[in-house]
Amino acid sequence: MNFSLSKYSGALMMAAPILMFAAHAATASVLSGVTNKPNNSTFFPGDTITLTFHASGLTAGKATTVNVKVKEEFGNELASASILATADASGHAYAVYHAPSNRYGYYRVEAALPDGTAVASLGSRPGGFISYAVVADPATRTNYGDAGSRFGMLGGFSSAMGPVMSYLGVRYLLAGPGWDTLEPNGAGQFATAHSVAVADGKKYPTSIANNHAAWPTYALPLITTGEIPTWAMNAGTGTVLRPDMGPLNAEGVIGFPEFTKARASGVAADFPAQSKHYYQMTWEPAISSTIKWPTAQFTRRMQKQWSWARPFSRSTPSRWSSSGPPVSPSISTLCLCIPT
Predict the structure, then answer these.
(1) 133 contacts 107 by C-beta, under 8 angstroms
(2) For the chain, how long is the longest CA-to-CA vector?
(3) Angle at the Cα of 180 (from 179 to 186), degrees rounded to 5?
């Protein structure tokens, strides 16, 4: 094949400036920040709070500033600073700021370079700032026991986050899973699995709630969530949002009391320090849009269905507590909690 340079010289000459420009393109600056407790950024009054900012993509040897503003939860500015930093040969610079810790609260620290480059986003945190909290030292908190404690959270805690339950003052924790998970295939599954675990010196199911931990927590066991076992309900009686939540069939009417009896026995053994054991019977049962049940009628229907459970059948309706009756024809936030 014959190749003529002159045939393509125009294209080469036009492309050359583009190639030269790409080779000399400036690297965009990036700013990040982190506290000296990066796993939770939660501190106690008087703690030393160190915020370290890292800038990259800077001109080597050139000085810059990291401009910092500390704001409290209502957006009021409490402190500000401009921290001098000089880029190293690789264009990296670091700035350290000691943030206030004299008051309880949530703090937002906005930081930016002179050119407007702000702190980059991280995970679910948007860009523009980093944050930290100052809370009461758990060692100074009073343990009011299960009867006097009122604050709980759903869960989702990880040991990698540190002891955040004590930082937040959390005492009650949901203890799952529900009936649909513990007995997916038929009645009696949970009792059998629980007996095997006890024989091996284990707990079943496991729970992060622990009455005897250095920071005692209390369990609120789940009986059902948004589903029940499909073998225990009348087929086709669910909704689009909750296809596996509906009236119990004949097998479910027999199996559900046996499950709750076994579950209550296990809970009493696993959490002996609690003066009462509360059970979340259900949550967010979706109501069919074709059924126009008044709130009171729906609540009575749910109470009747769950009253088949032993040992909860001893509880009269007046002892049942609802955290929020149905509020729409599509979904509710009903939670029935029964003490035993």
Answers:
(1) yes
(2) 98
(3) 90
């032993």: which residue's tokens? 310
Task: Dig out the tokens for 18 from the structure.
Answer: 């583009």
Helix orientation angle between 189-199 and 250-270, rounded to the nearest 10 degrees: 20
The whole-model pTM stands at 0.75
Structure tokens at 172: 């009650």
Rounded to 5 degrees, what are φ and ψ at 34? -155, 150
Distance (Å, whole) CA 73 – CA 107: 6
Residue 276: Cβ within 10 Å count: 10
Token pair, residue 132, equals 């930290």
Q: d(Cα 157, Cα 173) in Å, to the nearest integer?
A: 10
Residue 191, token pair as written in the block: 């009792």
User: What percent of the chain has pLDDT above 70?
Assistant: 75
Q: Are 51 and 130 in contact (CB under 8 A)?
A: yes
Has residue 4 got a pLDDT over 50? no
CA distance from start to end of the chain:
92
- 312's CB contacts (< 8 A; 6+ apart) are 260, 264, 279, 281, 306, 338, 340
Residues 6+ apart with CB under 8 A from 316: none
Separation in Å, CA 292 to CA 198, 241, 242, 246, 338: 46, 16, 17, 16, 27
* Residue 288 structure tokens: 């069919």
d(CA 16, CA 129): 42
Tens of pLDDT, residue by residue over 286-330, are: 554 444 444 555 556 566 666 666 555 454 444 445 444 443 444
The residues, ordered by sequence, that sit 6+ positions from 32 with a Cβ below 8 Å of its Cβ are 53, 54, 119, 120, 122
Full set of structural domains in the chain with CATH: 30-135 (2.60.40.1930), 140-339 (no CATH)
